[in-house]
Every structure is written in C-alpha cells, then in structure tokens.
Amino acid sequence: MQSLIDDLFAFIYKFSSFLLSILAGVVTKISYEMLMKRKLSIYQWFGIVGISIFFGYLCSVYCLNNGLEKQSSFLVPITTLFGEKIMIYLTTHYKTIIDRILNPKK
Questions:
Q1: Helices 42-65 and 83-92 meet at what angle, rounded to 10?
Q2: Three-state DSSP class for 4?
Q3: What pLDDT, on a 0 to 100 scale, did the predictor assign at position 106?
Q4: Is residue 24 over pLDDT 90?
C-alpha cells in the first residue's frame, strides 16, 4: 500500500505543472462564463469543465511527447480555456476534417 501512495505522490510531483496549468485554465473558463452571465444548468457546467480538462490533458500529452515543456506553461491553459470552442468547431466541421484526412491531395 505504501508503494501505491509513493507512486501517486511521484506522479503528482512529476505532472504538477501540467495539473496546475489545467486548473488555471478551468478557473479562467468558469470565471469568464460567470462574467459573461451565461445561464447554464449544472449538467452544462459539468460538460464544459469536462471538455476543458480533456483538451488541457491532450495538450499536456502533446507537449510532453514533442519536447515542448517550456511552451506548455502557456499552451495548456490556453487550450483548456478554448476547449469548448475547439469542440464546437470539430463537431460542426467534422465532415470536412475527415475528408481532408482521407483525401489529402484536394
């Protein structure tokens, strides 16, 4: 059991900058939505926060895999902040995106 706790603390220590960046992006997103007085249900809040965390995580994985540790300090919070807008774009233009991936010569 102690090994599991030690591994958990090692994980948190190693990825603390990414976790804090995602947290900063989520807090900024919630603050922005409150400032704009957007009326959302609790399920919509959970959805927006979930999507934001997901895109922040994807950005942190991308930064780790491509050696962008310095750039991740601003890329991860920005991606977290714009996660909802990115998802809206992807869902409205998915046919064009898939077509360009499958037929790159066009």
A1: 90
A2: helix
A3: 60
A4: no
Name the average pLDDT for the chain.
86
- DSSP letter at 47 equals H
Q: Rounded mean pLDDT of 12-33? A: 83
The predicted pLDDT at position 40 comes to 82
Neighbouring C-alpha atoms within 13 Å toward the C-beta of 58 = 14
**Is 56:21 a contact under the CB 8 Å cutoff?**
yes
Contacts of 28-37 with CB under 8 Å at 24 or more apart are 28/77, 28/80, 28/81, 29/80, 29/81, 29/83, 29/84, 32/81
Cβ neighbors of 76 (< 8 A, separation 6 or more) are: 18, 21, 22, 25, 56, 59, 60, 63
Helix (H, G, I), strand (E, B) or coil at 16: helix
Which domain range does residue 67 map to? Answer: 2-102
Based on the structure, what is the number of domains in the chain?
1
Range scoring the smallest mean pLDDT among 19-23, 46-50, 87-91: 19-23
